[in-house]
């Protein structure tokens, strides 16, 4: 394995991590902004108002997006396993 191959594997791993965690983090970001805007408009400064909806939507998004995340992770793992086999093949 050359340095270029190692860098390519690292790049693919980072992209896989972004594709897997990106949708959930985006949902959490949007929910946090909406809740912060609601708190600023109503001047309600309750700490549980920010925590509970983000937690519930994070769990719901994880359950809803689990098939996508698992399929992407399986594809990435198979690709890495194929590269490992290709390195060992003469």
Can you lay out the helices and strands and say which pair or pack?
Elements: H1 3-42, H2 47-88
Helix pairs in contact: 1-2
| Number of DSSP E strands | 0
Summing up helix and strand content along with how strands pair, one would put the structural category as: mainly alpha
Please summarize the sheet with the most strands.
none
Q: Which range best describes the helical content: under 10%, 10-25%, 25-40%, 40-55%, 55-70% or over 70%?
A: over 70%
Strand content: under 5%
Flag low-confidence runs. none
Short description:
The chain is mainly α.
How would you sum up this structure, described in words?
By secondary structure, this protein is mainly α. The protein has one domain (3-88). The protein is 91% helix and 0% strand. α1 packs antiparallel against α2 (47-88). The longest helix has 42 residues, at 47-88.
